[in-house]
Amino acid sequence: QGQLVESGGGSVQAGGSLTLSCAASADTYSDYCMSWFRQAPGKEREGVAGISSGTTYYADSVKGRFTISQDSAKNTLYLQMNSLKPEDTAMYYCASRQAASCNTWTWAYISRYNYWGQGTQVTVSS
User: Could you give the percent of the chain with pLDDT greater than 90?
Assistant: First the structure.
């Protein structure tokens, strides 16, 4: 509900770790699907990981390396990123939408998301 603000980005060597945070402006009584997206220069925005009612979703490229979680009491979303690779370099955004039809096939549909954060830059050097 409302605005989202990301933080935690930075520069790291390949193989390193970073944890991103996304704070929402207020709690909501509705079920929401919350996700992390990323966009590298010259490439389309893509879904990285999503979470809805405890169920998590991951892009194949980050499975086993990234973990999405949330603190519902604080309306905060997290993305723990391990074993970072240069190809993970991108602007990372958090986003939210109503949970209806948020599942394995639809969680990363960009057009479904109503709220977006300003983004936080992640740069991984070789």
Answer: 79
